[in-house]
Amino acid sequence: MLKLPKNFENYEEARREGFLKVKALKEKGTPVVGIFCTYTPIELIHAAGAVAVGLCGTSDAPIPDAEKHLPKNLCPLIKSSYGFAVSETCPYFYFADLLVGETTCDGKKKMYELLNEIKPTHVMHLPQGQDKDHAFKYWREELIRLKEVLEDKFNIEITDEILREEIKERNRERKILLDFYELGKLNPSPISGHKVNETMEALGFQFDRRTQCDFIADRTRELKDKYEKELKGTKSNRPRILITGCPVGGVRDKVLKTIEDSGADIVAFENCSGVREKATLVDETMDPIDALTEKYLNVSCSVMTPNPRRFQALDEMIDEYEIDGVIEVVLQACHTFNVEAYNVKRFVTEKKDKPYLYIETDYSKLDIGQINTRINAFLEML
Ligand code: SF4
Ligand code: SF4
C-alpha cells in the first residue's frame, strides 16, 4: 500500500487529486520516472514500461523551501524543482521510482547530488560539444548505461524491437506536436502563444499519451479549419514575436501574457518550451541506440559549446514564421543562456536585421511593472 505525504490532508483539492491520480497509476504497476531536461532519451524510459514525467518546477511557491539548502542567486527553475521535492508537494516527484538527470548546467548537476538523497537519481554525463567523434561515443556509452539502469530497476529487458517501436511512437508524437507549434506560421495565427505554451505544459502531465496526442491532432485540424474559413487573407498587423532562451513555463503570465496583452502575437518558440527538440526525428532505419545517441546529442541548448545548431534554428525560424521581433527570456543566474545572449543579439540584429529584446527574470512578481514597461517600449518601436 503506497503512503501519501504527511501533510496530504492540508493540500488544496487540485493537489490532492494529483497525488491520488499518480498513486492509482502506481498501484496498477506502472513505474514513474522523473526527468528534467530535453536531453533525456525518453524512448528508453518508455521502452522500460515506465511513464516519464517532466519535473522542472514552474512555480515560485516552493522556492522558500529550496532556499533552505540552495543559494538564493540560483536559477528559479532549479530552486522550484528542488523545492517541490523537499516539501513533498509534487505528486510526480513524490511517487517517482527513479529520477534521470544529465550534466547540463552547473546548478542542475549539483542539485542532482542533493536529490539523490531523497530519490534514486541516475545522472547521465552529457558531452558539452557535439561535433567530435568521441562525443558521440561517450554519449552512446551513457545511453547504454541508462538502458542497463532501467533494466535493473524495473526488471525488464529492453530489446531492440521494443526500442524501435518506442522510437516510431515518439516520432509520431513529435510530428503531431510540431504540427501544432507550426500553426504559428499561419498569418494571422489561429491560436495565441500563451495558449500554445499552456497546452503543451498540461500535456506533459497526462499519462495516456496516445489519447492526448490524438486530442492535439484534432485541435490542430480544428484551428487550421478556422484559419481557412475565417482568417485566411486577413493578415494581422500585430507584430509577430519569436521567443528564445530558457524554458518559459514559470514566467508564462508575467512575460508571454504581457506581450500578447500589449498588442503582439507570439508565433514561435525557439526554446525547450517549443520546437527545440521536436523539429528533428529519430532515424528509424539505424541501430536504435546509435539513432537515439545522434538525436539527443544534437539538441541545441546553450550548455553546448559552441552551439551552432541554435543559430541555424533561429535563422530558419525567423524566416519561416515571418518574425518581426525576437524576445529572449533568460532565467536569473542561468549563465549559459545569459552569456550566449550576446551572440544571439548580434545574430538577430546584425545578420537577420530584426529588433531584439533581452529579459532576465525569475518566478517572483517583483519585476512585473518593469517588464511591462520594457515590453511596451519594445513593441512601440516595432
Ligand atoms: S534549456 Fe537546456 S538544460 Fe534546460 S531543459 Fe532545455 S536542454 Fe535541458
Ligand atoms: S534555465 Fe539555465 S540555469 Fe536553469 S536549469 Fe535550464 S540551463 Fe540550468
Automatic annotation (TrEMBL):
Q: Which domain of life is it from?
A: Bacteria
Pfam (any one)? HGD-D
One GO MF annotation is: hydro-lyase activity
Annotated InterPro entries: FldB/FldC_alpha/beta, YjiM-like
Cofactor(s) needed by this chain: [4Fe-4S] cluster
UniProt similarity note? Belongs to the FldB/FldC dehydratase alpha/beta subunit family.
Instruction: State the protein's name.
Output: Benzoyl-CoA reductase/2-hydroxyglutaryl-CoA dehydratase subunit, BcrC/BadD/HgdB
